[in-house]
Amino acid sequence: MIDAKAFVTGLRAAGYDRFTGVPCSYLTPLINHVIGDPSLHYFPAANEGDAVAFAAGAWLGGQPAVVMMQNSGLGNAVSPLTSLNHTFGIPLLLICTHRGAADVPDEPQHALMGEITGALLDLMQIPWEPFPASPAAVGPALARAAAHHAAARGPYALLMPKGAVAPCPLVDDAARTTAAVATIKGSPAPASSGRPSRAAALRAVIEATPLDNAVVVATTGFTGRELYALNDRANHFYMVGSMGCASALGLGLALACPHQHVVVVDGDGAALMRMGNMAMSGRYGPANLSHVLLDNEVHDSTGAQATLSASVDFAAVAVACAYGEVWRAAEVNTLGQFLARPRQSGAGFIHLKTAPGSLPDLPRPHITPPAAMARLRRHLGLA
């Protein structure tokens, strides 16, 4: 058994002061210690995949974060671990508990995952080792993780057994505080025949995001491909795979880069897939984060099958999630005004209904995901 402070001291020495994830009883002492230390930052996530994407964005911005989760949560995190971190080459330190381990009595829902946790990490090509059992073991374990990050640019996991960390009480948790309720600005969406194209909306985003102080994160599918076709710039990050994770990545990036205006361009299908991250963005989103939802009510890149968005009031959801400013837009000019408007506090959210369809002969980005990641890091002065 190790004391939480001893482990966190090693993490500080390795450059970590940010933590995210979803609690597990095995993680309780570590999470409680992090919450109780005002010099550390804990960002609870709605699910484990959001935590992985948040940490990826934080790393892109030069502030790596530790992800903590129960091994059952690996299922929620498979998509970003394999199609975000692996695809782009983004390092990650993962602390994963081992519920359902052999010869350790546990609840029935942990039995299968307990048997396959190590194999699942192996299958995802994530090296792992047991969580350090003593203070002397912390430094070497983190050094092995750092060596893997430098060589392979991918996740590295520490598998935590029951009772690995000594008990630590929970102090008052500031995450329970509430924010002021925003009012919705703007006009409702027009009839479908009067909606602007996604390309027109993306042109407005490009115009409002100068190279010197803005970053655009585009969700996977036609949104990123159209942004690339219209104007490929060093401050663009095109998500591929990891559907729904753009907002979590953008939040991590915005917190790590307070002098950059981080604009997340999301789609309705992606937003619905991981709507829980809107709560995280509303609670922790800084004023330099703008969440743009372009909603054409279909999965455009897979044949225009309908999403569920026609019956969802995204602006009302954003208000309920405590975004600092919430807009509805009926036209592209309103989107431009929203992006140009400075905010004093809180993330901004805007919902714009767009028409289905895309530019003709839409290309895929010719820049590879690792090259796009490296280009953005250079643009931010971090490479």
Distance between the termini: 38 Å
**Order of the strands making up the biggest sheet:** 7-14-15-11-10-8-9
* Coarse structural class: alpha/beta
Number of strands: 15
Query: Which value, in Å, is the CA radius of gyration?
Result: 21 Å
Word description of this protein:
By secondary structure, the chain is α/β, with parallel strands linked by helices. It folds into two domains: 171 residues, Rossmann fold (3-Layer(aba) Sandwich), CATH 3.40.50; 196 residues, Rossmann fold (3-Layer(aba) Sandwich), CATH 3.40.50.970. 39% of the residues lie in helices and 18% in strands. Strands 7-14-15-11-10-8-9 form a seven-stranded parallel β-sheet, with helices on both faces. Strands 2-1-3-4-6-5 form a six-stranded parallel β-sheet, with helices on both faces. α13 links the parallel β14 and β15. α3 runs parallel beside α4 and α9 runs parallel beside α11. The mean pLDDT is 94.
